[in-house]
Automatic annotation (TrEMBL):
The keyword Oxidoreductase applies. It holds the Pfam family Nitroreductase. This is Malonic semialdehyde reductase. Residues 20-164 form the Nitroreductase domain. The keyword GTP-binding does not apply. Keywords: Oxidoreductase. GO terms for molecular function: oxidoreductase activity. It comes from Novipirellula artificiosorum. InterPro entries: Nitroreductase, Nitroreductase-like. Belongs to the nitroreductase family.
Length: 208
């Protein structure tokens, strides 16, 4: 059984952008590099994300699969459960936030929010140009800080694998297990459990 085609990945209840409907998080990637131009386009999409005071508190550390030593170094920063499948991706990123505003050095409590927006822009741009990304919390933060000499003013946060999803039929038992994770039912909470009015837990009338 092959992995799902892009058109039937996210059966949304309402009309949304194609890139949102087609975005998914593969565990299997084709054995190929990702063109630099496509990686840069994804990073450019992230660059134009809205942020508090236009502070743009996010940064990215990039490792391309064709650059064997840097790629293996970044791979070693992932938790073991992520290393095997992520090793097949074309590019790895590590996201980093600056914890204070540039203009006054006061704490930026929404830096993570802004990073999340930037990562979403990156993921949707990747989908638009035939790639997919898989975002990971499983990262050895202290190792990342040490290896990449990240200053105290910044904090590493997540890892992102980028590549061409492999939709071929699995051959090995490991591939079959990964495919099962990819093809299991995709579910989201209904809007009525997330959108409130008047008081907490009171479903907004716009959904009724």
């Amino acid at each position: 059984m092959s992995s799902p085609s892009p058109k039937d990945v996210n059966p949304t209840d309402l009309g949304v952008l194609d890139a949102i409907r087609q975005r998914w998080s593969p565990y299997r990637f084709e054995d190929r590099w990702v063109e630099d131009e496509k990686v840069v386009r994804c990073l450019e999409a992230a660059r134009w994300t809205a942020s508090s005071y236009n502070d743009q508190p996010w940064s990215w550390i990039v490792a391309r699969r064709q650059d064997t030593e840097p790629f293996q170094t970044m791979l070693s920063c992932l938790l073991e459960a992520n290393q095997a499948w992520a090793s097949q991706s074309g590019v790895l990123l590590i996201s980093v936030i600056r914890t204070t505003f540039r203009k006054n050095q006061k704490p930026n409590r929404v830096a993570l929010h802004d990073l999340g927006q930037a990562a979403a822009h990156l993921a949707l741009q990747a989908t638009q140009i035939g790639l997919q990304v898989h975002q990971m919390a499983g990262l050895n933060l202290s190792r990342v800080r040490q290896i990449y000499e990240i200053p105290d003013s910044h904090q590493p946060q997540t890892a992102i694998a980028i590549g061409y999803p492999d939709r071929s039929a699995p051959v090995t038992e490991v591939d079959r297990e990964l495919q099962q994770r990819e093809t299991r039912a995709r579910e989201r909470m209904p809007l009525r459990d997330q959108v409130f009015s008047s008081k907490w837990g009171n479903t907004s009338s716009i959904l009724k």
